[in-house]
Design goal:
Arc Repressor Mutant, subunit A, Glutaredoxin, 4 strands, 46% helix, elongated, disordered N terminus, binds FE2/S2 (inorganic) cluster
Length: 170
């Protein structure tokens, strides 16, 4: 799972920070993975423009770096939203209707597993058992656990988050 959610200035590449990271590894192209990990720590994800930039700096092909980022599940190519929604898809949750909860999240926020809302507020991830099967189906939003979910309850919870965010912005 990626690190803590950080609201991002999406599209802005912190070239100075990336240069510093590459400098920490003395521009060594064999350190691509730790370099990418540090970039992800810096930005919350590895942006596509960042990949081209790193490729140029390390004198390797962008395709090679892209291959690494897509191969390892730890890397994400999309920014992480302010609120990370983790929906359990373990056996108990699956049996007790996780699919319906997933559908409610997708309906409500217009995102699927692995995606982030365009406003950067929510990222939706489907995860393996999170260890509270007796409370299934379960989701965690920004560290808060919601148990015995129904699609209606899920929609209500998401609407509450949206209302709180709207209040913060006004
Ligand atoms: S299967 Fe979902 S919490 Fe265990």
């Amino acid at each position: 799972m990626a690190g803590a959610a950080k609201p991002l200035d999406v599209g802005a590449i912190p070239y100075e920070g990336i240069n510093e990271i590459i400098g920490n590894y003395k521009g060594d192209s064999s350190a691509i993975i730790p370099i990418l990990q540090d970039i992800q720590d810096l930005m919350g994800y590895v942006p596509k423009d960042g990949i081209s930039y790193v490729a140029e700096k390390l004198e390797v092909s962008a395709a090679k770096i892209y291959g690494i980022v897509t191969f390892y599940a730890q890397f994400r190519l999309q920014p992480v939203g302010k609120h990370m929604i983790m929906l359990c898809e373990g056996t108990a949750c699956h049996v007790n209707g996780a699919k319906l909860i997933s559908g409610a999240i997708t309906d409500e926020l217009d995102i699927r597993g692995g995606e982030t809302t365009p406003d950067g507020l929510f990222t939706f991830e489907k995860v393996a058992c999170i260890g509270c099967c007796s409370l299934s189906p379960v989701m965690v939003i920004s560290g808060e656990t919601y148990a015995k979910l129904t699609p209606e309850a899920t929609r209500k919870i998401l609407k509450e988050y949206q209302a709180k965010e709207a209040a913060v912005q006004n």
